[in-house]
Amino acid sequence: MRAFINHFSFEFRTGIRNKSLLLLNYLFPLAFYAMMGLLMAELNPT
Question: CB-based contacts of 16: which residues, under 8 Å, 6+ apart?
Protein backbone atom coordinates (compact mmCIF):
# COMPACT_ATOMS: atom_id res chain seq x y z
CA MET A 1 0.00 0.00 0.00
CA ARG A 2 2.90 2.31 0.74
CA ALA A 3 4.24 1.86 -2.80
CA PHE A 4 0.84 2.75 -4.25
CA ILE A 5 0.64 5.93 -2.15
CA ASN A 6 4.16 6.94 -3.23
CA HIS A 7 3.37 6.27 -6.88
CA PHE A 8 0.06 8.14 -6.74
CA SER A 9 1.55 11.16 -4.99
CA PHE A 10 4.42 11.33 -7.51
CA GLU A 11 2.05 11.06 -10.49
CA PHE A 12 -0.25 13.70 -9.00
CA ARG A 13 2.58 16.15 -8.33
CA THR A 14 4.07 15.76 -11.80
CA GLY A 15 0.66 15.78 -13.48
CA ILE A 16 -0.46 19.00 -11.82
CA ARG A 17 2.46 20.89 -13.43
CA ASN A 18 1.39 20.10 -17.00
CA LYS A 19 -1.84 21.96 -17.78
CA SER A 20 -2.99 19.78 -20.68
CA LEU A 21 -2.35 16.64 -18.65
CA LEU A 22 -4.23 18.16 -15.73
CA LEU A 23 -7.18 18.93 -17.96
CA LEU A 24 -7.35 15.54 -19.66
CA ASN A 25 -6.60 13.33 -16.67
CA TYR A 26 -8.36 15.13 -13.82
CA LEU A 27 -10.77 17.88 -14.82
CA PHE A 28 -12.38 16.33 -17.89
CA PRO A 29 -13.28 13.02 -16.18
CA LEU A 30 -14.60 14.83 -13.10
CA ALA A 31 -16.78 17.07 -15.26
CA PHE A 32 -17.96 14.06 -17.27
CA TYR A 33 -18.90 12.07 -14.15
CA ALA A 34 -20.69 15.07 -12.63
CA MET A 35 -22.63 15.68 -15.84
CA MET A 36 -23.57 11.99 -16.16
CA GLY A 37 -24.56 11.88 -12.50
CA LEU A 38 -26.89 14.83 -12.94
CA LEU A 39 -28.32 13.40 -16.14
CA MET A 40 -28.94 9.97 -14.61
CA ALA A 41 -30.58 11.54 -11.56
CA GLU A 42 -33.03 13.33 -13.86
CA LEU A 43 -33.77 10.12 -15.78
CA ASN A 44 -34.47 8.12 -12.61
CA PRO A 45 -38.20 7.26 -12.73
CA THR A 46 -38.71 7.01 -8.96
Answer: 22
Task: Please give the tally of structural domains in the chain.
Answer: 1
C-alpha to C-alpha distance for 13 and 8, rounded to whole angstroms: 9
The amino acid at residue 4 is: F
pLDDT per position as a tens digit, 5-43? 999 999 888 877 888 877 888 889 999 999 999 999 888
The CA-based dihedral angle spanning residues 34, 37, 39, 44, taken in that order and rounded to the nearest 10 degrees: -170
pTM over 0.70: no
**Domain housing 12:** 2-43
Angle at the Cα of 21 from the Cα atoms of 20 and 22, rounded to 5 degrees: 90
